[in-house]
Specification:
Layout lengths: L6 H9 L4 H15 L3 E7 L5 E5 L3 H9 L7 H7 L5 E2 L8 H12 L5 E8 L5 E8 L3 H29 L13 H11 L4 H7 L4 H15 L4 H10 L6
Antiparallel strand pairs: 1-2, 1-5, 3-4, 4-5
Amino acid sequence: MGTKLDMSQVLEDLENTSTLDELSNVAVRLRDRLKVEHLIYHWVDGAGDQYGYTTYPDAWAERYLEKNYHRIDPVILGCFQRFHPVDWKTLDWSSKVAKAFLQDAQNHGVGNQGYSIPIRGPNGQFALFTVNHSCDDETWQRFIERHGRELILIAHYFNRKALEFESDRQPDSARGLSPREVDAMTLLALGYSRAQVAHSLSISEHTLRVYIEGARAKLGAQNTTHAIATALSRGLIVV
């Protein structure tokens, strides 16, 4: 399971999408490259409305909406309380309701392993980017160790593109940082060196420096570390 990803190509594919159908096609190709069973983008806004894309069976997607499962789903509830990516095995599945939900999910083709990345925005917007598969714990752990950082960056790009196509779901106010500034700060927060960030974004280190300085100025930060901490605390980037 899993294969080496050409991140430059993945991000370029996402950047070049102009419709939700194209974004869905990129998601399917990414799922196949990662060799996982399912890839999911799930959005719940402040009013409780849901939107998303999933490779789950249609029957499960329809049942999930019909039963309003987002109100009891341990993945939604657990990730809403966290800022970091979450392995499903670390969540609380002990209640009778959670156990019944899990059994229903697995009966509909949902795998026993999951890894979800919370994504937040102003005004109550909350999204999850998830990969799901059926395998043993050791195999899954190796997959996450190999692709965890890449999935965080992909989640950020996927969320940004999805919002472009759903303009009525955009935050009412600007996030403060430009998309490229968010990209740069996210990778720096993940521990990438400036050279690695520049390579990942296919830009020069000089251009990267412009983005970093721009982010620092907008955030009122004294240095890059301060800028990263401020961006994280405001929910402008997710790691």
